């Protein structure tokens, strides 16, 4: 009996798919205007774990993850870098190519569907037309807005009341809107740019795309919708409103949200400028070390990123690799795995809302026993390899060249220490650490 925490109910629930042995899974993908960061990596590793786990349990899983390849930030980046906002597809393609390499490095399985918004504009226009026809949306000066008050259950996912929401930081006030809470489904643009529609030239708003794409690829009702906690409001709340207003059916039976990555107690985000790009971290660490670091934490828990903790996770992961180095990956049935006490405990933790923290506790507490039993070791490796997605292959630790830039920092730090300027010395040490260099002072 698998349990998952459903954001909709706020409770841990027994998972039951809409159709026997079939699961539809949708996760919100990236907006490719800048390099993906480790917050993105954590989210997609979490849903890759879910995908692998459900597949292991015998479900036929259809996984869909989109690309928001048209967006205000993407247009701005194209204008800044290429001098023309209409060259945004070039920016998007570069970022998508990089992101796909990173997902492969992190051993995330490809979703069955990876739709791009720009390739589904007629589909999105049709979805909007149907909302207008049902009285849930309206055109105003070439824009189209969803009427929030036409959907009485608005706020049920994020646990907010319509009357308590106000125009402000999270709700744009606009003269075109009938109500400040209403949100854009279609944005007017200059004639001849982007796409033509019944309301004139324009492009889709952010929220409508996921409703349209999920419905097209997975059906009007899906089993699981996932994403980062930061998408809960307004994005996922608006998806619920659009989809359920149109169909009259529950959009997703289970809503799953992973905890956010934080640095210095702040959410990691591009807008705050405190991101660590996946590309940069993988220059210093093996992708499996980063994946293991994420999986050591429960997917719903916030994570406070630190290089110190990542180094600790790296040591633990390498210890695991050494213990199972010459062990083949097992091919046991679920029933056979449940007949061995240690692997049974591992599966029980995973069954309980993907509790990887507890599962790894079992593994490391039993490591000596596991190493002494070839069959058990193969069984443990099977779960770690197939379900957790860990390759468990030792790779050489990366050596770092001392460049002139690094040497300059080292010299500056030594000078600071000689002057007993410990604050500056510590600052440079942390800077070097972020660049992948660990400084050890001689006693």
Q: What do you see in this structure?
A:
The protein has 443 residues and is α/β, with parallel strands linked by helices. The chain has helices at residues 38-56, 72-82, 88-105, 121-133, 206-218, 232-247, 278-281, 287-295, 307-323, 334-338, 341-351, 356-365, 367-371, 374-387, 404-418, 422-434, and strands spanning 3-6, 11-14, 22-27, 60-65, 137-140, 143-146, 183-188, 202-204, 222-228, 252-258, 261-263, 266-267, 303-304. It folds into three domains: 3-261, Rossmann fold (3-Layer(aba) Sandwich); 284-387, no CATH class; 399-443, no CATH class. Helices cover 44% and strands 13% of the residues. A four-stranded parallel β-sheet has the order 4-3-9-10, with helices on both faces. Strands 5-6-7-8 form a four-stranded antiparallel β-sheet. Strands 12-11-13 form a three-stranded mixed β-sheet, with helices on one face. Helix 6 links the parallel strand 9 (222-228) and strand 10. Helix 5 crosses helix 6 (232-247) and helix 8 packs across helix 9.
Write a brief caption for the model.
This protein has 443 residues and is α/β, with parallel strands linked by helices. The chain has three domains: 3-261, HUPs (Rossmann fold); 284-387, no CATH class; 399-443, no CATH class. Helix content is 44%, strand content 13%.
């Amino acid at each position: 009996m698998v349990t998952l925490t459903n954001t909709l109910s706020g409770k841990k629930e027994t998972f039951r798919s809409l159709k026997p042995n079939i699961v539809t899974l949708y996760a919100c993908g990236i907006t490719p205007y800048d390099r993906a960061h480790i917050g993105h990596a954590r989210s997609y590793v979490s849903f890759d774990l879910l995908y692998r786990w459900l597949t292991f349990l015998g479900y036929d899983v259809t996984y869909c993850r989109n690309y928001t390849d048209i967006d205000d930030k993407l247009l701005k980046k194209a204008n800044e870098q290429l001098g023309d906002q209409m060259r945004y597809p070039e920016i998007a393609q570069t970022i998508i190519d990089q992101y796909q390499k990173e997902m492969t490095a992190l051993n995330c399985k490809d979703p069955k569907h990876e739709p791009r918004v720009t390739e589904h504009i007629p589909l999105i226009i049709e979805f909007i037309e149907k909302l207008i026809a049902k009285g849930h949306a309206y055109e105003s000066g070439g824009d189209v807005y969803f009427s929030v008050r036409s959907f009485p259950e608005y706020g049920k996912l994020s646990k907010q009341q319509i009357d308590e929401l106000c125009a402000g930081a999270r709700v744009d006030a606009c003269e075109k809107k009938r109500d400040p809470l209403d949100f854009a489904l279609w944005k007017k643009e200059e004639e001849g740019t982007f796409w033509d529609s019944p309301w004139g030239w324009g492009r889709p708003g952010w929220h409508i795309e996921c409703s349209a794409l999920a419905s097209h690829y997975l059906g009007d009702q899906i089993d699981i919708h996932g994403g980062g906690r930061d998408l809960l409001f307004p994005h996922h709340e608006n998806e619920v409103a659009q989809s359920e207003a149109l169909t009259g059916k529950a959009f997703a039976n289970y809503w799953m949200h992973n905890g956010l990555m934080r640095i210095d107690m702040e959410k990691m985000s591009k807008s705050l400028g405190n991101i660590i790009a996946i590309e940069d971290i993988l220059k210093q660490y093996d992708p499996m070390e980063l994946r293991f670091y994420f999986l050591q934490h429960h997917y719903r828990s916030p994570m406070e990123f630190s290089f110190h903790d990542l180094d600790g996770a790296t040591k633990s992961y390498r210890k695991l690799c050494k213990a199972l180095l010459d062990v083949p990956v097992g091919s046991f049935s679920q029933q056979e795995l449940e007949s061995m006490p240690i692997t049974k405990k591992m599966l029980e933790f995973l069954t309980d809302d993907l509790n990887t923290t507890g599962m790894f506790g079992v593994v490391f507490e039993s490591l000596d026993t596991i190493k002494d039993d070839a069959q058990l070791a193969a069984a443990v490796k099977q779960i770690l390899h197939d379900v957790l997605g860990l390759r468990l292959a030792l790779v050489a630790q990366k050596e770092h060249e001392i460049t002139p830039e690094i040497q300059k920092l080292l010299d500056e730090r030594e000078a600071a220490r000689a002057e007993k300027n410990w604050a500056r010395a510590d600052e440079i040490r942390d800077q070097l650490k972020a660049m992948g260099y660990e400084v050890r002072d001689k006693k």
